Amino acid sequence: MALAHEASRVREILAAARLEHVRYAIRDIAVLAEQLAREGKEVLPLNIGDPLKFDFRTPPHLIEAVVKAMRDGKDGYAPSGGVDEALEAVRAEAERKGIRNIQSVFVTQGVSEAVDLCLTALVNPGENILTPCPEYPLYSAVLAKLGAEPNAYALDEASGWEPDLDDLARKINSRTRAVVVINPNNPTGAVYSRKTLEAIAGLARRHGLVIFADEIYDKLILDGEPHVSIAALAPDVPTVTFNGLSKAYLAPGWRVGWAVVSGDAAAVKPYVEGIHKLLRSRLSANHPEQYAVRPALEGPQDHVSEVVRKLRSRRDLTVKYLNRTPRLSSVAPRGAFYAFPRLDISGTDEEFVRRLLIAKHVLVVHGSGFGQAPGTRHFRIVFLPDEATLARAYNGIAEFLKGWEQ
Ligand SMILES: Cc1ncc(COP(=O)(O)O)c(C=O)c1O
After folding, report:
1. 3-state DSSP call for residue 105?
2. Tens digit of pLDDT for each residue in 313-327?
3. Ligand 1 pocket member 252 (CB < 6 A)
4. Which helix (H) or strand (E) holds 62?
5. pTM for the predicted model, two decimal places
6. Nearest alpha carbon to residue 237 among 225, 246, 229, 248
């Protein structure tokens, strides 16, 4: 009897309070979409940055390299920092991009793990890191876990979503340890000018900040000059440049990313030691998949040009529709595969996204999920789907907005 009584009283296992600030809107909104899909509705997914969900496939020469590695018995743990072959290829690629003073290179389970490790190795509770607003939410999630403060600096929509350098300078205080620069940017699609990057490097130099340069989209430049790595402009400034196989190399499920630490050797030494301590404590990144890194960076690049060609056409279509839809305005994306249009409506963007999904089965993510500027309303579009799907989705959005109350 007593046992039955005990069993009926559910004792909830509460999640840690630090999770209160962890949000991942990109996946959260997908729960409602899954429900609609279960009801047999065809949902148009413009929400997730996974090329494999659309008409992009992992290049066969990369798959072959991984299969060969498995057949060759590369199935045990890898060295904690990564296999030599991959490390050499990452270093050579960094050098090709003009990065000098390289102090360490290591392979991780995607850029996500590299970000987690590198932030963990740097910040103490109560310190802060400058993160862009709007931002890719991984950074705030990791900072919340560490008891560190996010310290958001504005990206300026009126100047093509370039970082607002005055705001950035104003936000630096005695507890600021680093600045995150996502270029090309998620969620805005901006590609920063050399002048902006030099100015950020100057601020980092003056204030002793580490630069976290997230360059996962560096090969997906849709207009203009080739991408410039901020580390190449400031060889003396401690910089961690992130990249990986998830986007241009079309293998996000393999979970292979890497980081290149550059800057003055004596300055970064203790930090690099801290990072390697953490790398050892989690044993290793995925092993056989690391053998795709060299063929990715040094083998045929035809698939990258093909990806860029498709994305350029889908970006052009996106801009055409966004420009002609009343109540929407958008900066034209120049890199990656995201647009971040502004909504001129009453109500919240979250409400817009939810109701759009229910009414038109178009799935986008609300701007508040990316920490947009207070008082503004946006949503993020992923323009990976083919042109026919995008056109259907954009027509759905236009019709839906026509019916919006005011
Ligand atoms: C800016 C940015 N950084 C990092 C990641 C995560 O990359 P990975 O798959 O290598 O963990 C993403 C994924 O969308 C991203 O947009």
Report:
1. strand
2. 999 999 999 999 999
3. yes
4. helix 60-71
5. 0.94
6. 229
